[in-house]
């Protein structure tokens, strides 16, 4: 599956922008665990983060394939899209399931970058992957809902105005089905801070601006309920394919960066009087990584193409994310090995990218859960959990 040529200008434009944010920029932020404000502002100004917002709301109205190319190029340039990738896709839930009034109220501001909707509050400390067991509640009180509970790993919450929040509105035992009783809200965090909302950063092995969030009687206007009360789980699931495809594209970009770095180094580094890349023990792992990356890339393109036609792409989006995350991690390991001791030195950026790309076999969904999905939904095997 070859990409059409019309994406070349977008790819070039992303690369040109990323060239202004070289390794030393990311290294400094990594050391300080600081947010890449300038990088995010530049991507926003160029309109890249509004790629998937339709033109009628001020976005660029691009395809999923184009959006994936943007994310891939960011990673292939050595930059990191994680601090802002959710600005691209979290709005999809509002776009697909929000009311006309909500779309008018939020999407143009998100498209301009004046409003950041890049916090996604699903995971909780006690439920983990078992989303249906989440305990955060939203209880109706007049024209508001009152939210109580806790989320964890709510990335970018400190750098977002709005949060897409999943909370239980009907107790599990009273819900009409296994998946009913959860609802999605657009939570305005600016209004909620100091009114029951507390955000605490979690320091992680990479610079990821992730947090835990506590809700104590946080009041959310009933107008901010997305779609129908109790149907929220379905709305969240429908947004996950976009997330998986875009993150898979980021992994492809990472893999390309690692492969390029390794091949260049293997051509230049001379030990025992010859380039290390002349040894099959060094060149074969690079070739193997390249083959794995290209295969994963085809699945990412297939998933994006299916997504665009509006067909069910659940299996392809999951497989793309799985193959791409495994491929970027294998390439990271290979690249570090190819560099020997220098792979561990900060100034080569490999150890930083190695830590960053490691995330994607765990989040936004872990490998085992993808395998379970394919086993159950594609192969018809019994549900294992
Ligand atoms: C840096 C970071 C950023 C994140 N950002 C966000 C965010 O913005 N918003 C958000 O909502 N969440 C976010 N997450 C959460 C992420 O989606 C979860 O960490 C991930 O889905 C795994 O859930 P868990 O950590 O609770 O693991 P658990 O559910 O506790 O699972 C632990 C391990 O057990 C395995 N496992 C569990 N159940 C089964 C089973 N039935 N069969 C086989 N294996 C099983 C899992 O695959 C995993 O390997 C983030 C996480 C990280 C680390």
Summarize the biggest pleated sheet.
Answer: 4 strands, mixed
Structural class designation: alpha+beta
Query: Which descriptor suits the 3D outline?
Result: globular
User: Count of helices?
Assistant: 13
Strand line-up of the largest beta sheet = 1-4-5-8
- Ligand set: flavin-adenine dinucleotide
Radius of gyration: 21 Å
Percent of residues in beta strands?
A: 5-15%
What is the share of helical residues? 40-55%
Tell me how many strands there are: 10
Average pLDDT value?
97
Ends: how far apart? 36 Å
Along the chain, the helix and strand elements come as HHHHHHHEEEEEHEEEHEEHHHH
Poorly predicted residue ranges: none
Mind explaining what this structure looks like?
The protein is α+β, with helices and mostly antiparallel strands and 385 residues long. The protein is 48% helix and 15% strand. It is built from 13 helices and 10 strands. The strands form 3 sheets. A 4-stranded mixed beta sheet has the order 1-4-5-8. β9 (270-271) and β10 (274-275) form a beta hairpin. α4 (64-76) packs across α9, α9 packs antiparallel against α10 and α10 (280-308) runs antiparallel to α11. It is globular. Flavin-adenine dinucleotide binds at residues 120, 122-123, 128-129, 153-155, 204, 208, 210, 359, 362-366, 368-369, 372, 384-385.
